[in-house]
Design a protein that fits this description.
Globin-like, 153 residues
Length: 153
């Protein structure tokens, strides 16, 4: 068993939301939405869904005060190779809100979860592709143009 993480949300937030099973359910719903979204799916063109879902669950487990087993990059470093305008983050955040409802997370817990998620916006959003670079030598910056027929939300 991995060591318990420390959470600004309180020691029992992880248990309150339903532990790892809830996180897995939420992330399964979320990534179904992300991998089929007309714009956001482009950011995952070369990504294995099961890997990114597992990483997201591990990351959030530790954030919520559950087992701290995530060994990946920080959100800023994990996304530095992607040009992500604010609209991309906002769409993803809205899809997360939908996933939380669909997964049956209680309204007060959804609010806390979404507040923490919103706090990552500054770390992930870019104003220009010039702010991005590969995570390793030779990695290209991912720029996914907004589909022209996509309605504004």
């Amino acid at each position: 068993m991995a060591a318990k993480g420390k959470s600004a949300l309180g020691d029992n937030f992880y248990e309150q939301v339903g532990g790892k099973a809830c996180l897995q359910r939420v992330h399964n719903i979320l990534y179904t939405k992300l991998f089929t979204h007309p714009w956001l799916k482009g950011f995952f063109a070369h990504t294995k869904r099961e890997v990114v879902e597992a990483q997201q669950t591990d990351f959030w487990m530790g954030l919520m005060g559950g087992p701290s087993i995530y060994g990946g990059r920080s959100p800023r470093d994990a996304h530095v190779h992607m040009f992500m305008p604010a609209e991309v983050f906002d769409i993803r955040h809205k899809l997360l809100a939908e996933a939380l409802v669909e997964a049956g997370v209680a309204p007060d817990l959804r609010e806390k979860w979404l507040a923490i998620d919103a706090g990552f916006k500054r770390a992930i959003v870019n104003e220009s592709p010039d702010e991005c670079h590969g995570r390793y030598r030779g990695e290209e910056v991912i720029i996914v143009p907004r589909p022209p027929n996509l309605t504004r939300e």
